[in-house]
Design a protein that fits this description.
single chain, mainly alpha, flat
Length: 72
């Protein structure tokens, strides 16, 4: 039972660390987009938005492919 508690605790700590890293990345990207927009660098804003849309589209495409092949 002690090993199960240890593994679960380490898993939760790992998930929290990953969540903090993802939130830091999101806030950093939002700051980059805002500062670029405020300074008139619309090319960087466009590239960031296109990259976000492409990542979302790829995520949905993988989900649809996994659903179509009955893997999920």
């Amino acid at each position: 039972m002690d090993d199960l508690v240890l593994a679960g605790s380490l898993g939760i700590i790992g998930l929290c660390i990953v969540a903090i890293m993802v939130l830091y990345g999101v806030f950093s990207l939002a700051g980059l987009i805002f500062s670029s927009y405020a300074s008139g660098e619309y090319g960087i804003v466009l590239v960031c938005i296109v990259a976000i849309l492409m990542a979302g589209s790829l995520y949905m495409a993988v989900g649809w492919w996994l659903h179509a092949t009955d893997r999920i």
